[in-house]
């Protein structure tokens, strides 16, 4: 195999490993947000928390900038995750916490 192809395969293997880390991390995050959804529903708290979301966006944008990642991308990524979390929280609320 040629040197460029070997390097490409190594890079892709590293990317695949990072994709697995991201997926497992997201799964753990959603397990925690499910618990938050149950807590919110049990205590009649709203599914969304705009103040928290704004603070998280600012925090993630700063972290992204420090890490050399586009802050716009980080914000879009967080907004995507938050939208899914809110959807889960609304579903939990509608189904009840019994």
UniProtKB/TrEMBL annotation:
Keywords, ordered alphabetically: Isomerase
EC number: 5.4.99.5
Top class in the EC scheme: isomerase
Domain Chorismate mutase: 2-93
GO molecular function, one term: chorismate mutase activity
Top-rank taxon: Bacteria
Protein name in UniProt: chorismate mutase
Organism: Ponticaulis profundi
Organism lineage: Bacteria, Pseudomonadati, Pseudomonadota, Alphaproteobacteria, Hyphomonadales
